[in-house]
Amino acid sequence: MALVFIRTAIIFLTLLFIMRLMGKSQIGEMQPFEFVITLLIAELACIPMADSSVPLFYGIIAIVAIFVLHQIVWLLDLWFKPVKRAVCGKPSLVINKDGIDEYQIKSNNIDISDLIESMRVAGYFSLDDVFYGLYESNGSFSALENPDRQTSSLSVLLIDSGKADKKNLKQCGIQPDDLNEFLSAQKTKLKDVLVMTVNGEGRVYFQKRGQKYEILEMEIKNQW
Asked: What SS3 string covers 122-159?
């Protein structure tokens, strides 16, 4: 029991020292390679703590080796921009002055609902609340706010990449026929709509694939 405690204490102190050397990004928002390194260090630390048959020195050497690799990648990331893009990626502009960039959405393996969730976390509750929105290379969402934002209630997603959200349509009191009538008025079909949201006052954010978004009005039965 005492041996396990001592081994754990040594590994803990080693990890604390290594993590401090790696910098603040290890305890904040990490780049992809930093996240991988953190997972590896955690796994390597568990082995000598749980299995007393494994020499403690082996665990410490493995952790130090990971630290050395981290420093090498960090230096390459600092000195060579192509390496930085390859290892860390680059920011993706998912919202621009024309609306949502469908290509960037797909490139980041997210859908419209994921984008809307990220915006809500950042304090924006309508897609036109921002002029520009981007995902940073560490996965965080940043935005340039629209000074004329007119958010008065929460927007609900009705159409996501050509597919209607039946649950949200029912919540808003919108029948399928009502939606089809609205789409007919815009001279488009469901499959050609990238995104459509509506708030409690019937204010619609509407964007066709490959086109600039529009702000429209729609009558809804259930207001919120």
From this structure: CCCCCHHHEEEEEECCCCCEEEEECCCCCCCCCCEEEE
Please state the separation of Cα 192 from the chain's center in Å.
25
What confidence tens digit (pLDDT) does each residue in 123-140 have? 999 999 999 999 987 778
Structure token digits, residue 58: 């082996």
Q: State pTM to two decimals.
A: 0.70
In this structure, what DSSP letter does residue 30 have? Answer: P
Q: Which of 161, 151, 167 is nearest to 195 (CA)?
A: 161
Q: What pLDDT, in 10s, does the model give residues 69-120?
A: 777 777 877 777 776 666 667 788 999 999 999 999 988 888 899 999 999 9
d(CA 155, CA 198): 5
| Cα–Cα distance for residue pair 63/116, rounded to 1 Å | 39
What does the alpha-carbon distance between residue 114 and residue 60 come to, in Å, rounded to a whole number? 40
Q: Any idea which residue has 């991988």 for tokens?
A: 36
Rounded distance between C-alpha atoms, residue 189 and residue 211, angstroms: 14
DSSP 144: E
- Contact partners, residue 223, CB within 8 Å, separation at least 6: 200, 201, 202
80/125 Cα distance (integer angstroms) = 39
**CA contacts within 13 A on the Cβ side of 104:** 16
Residue 14: which of 71, 51, 56 has the closest Cα?
56
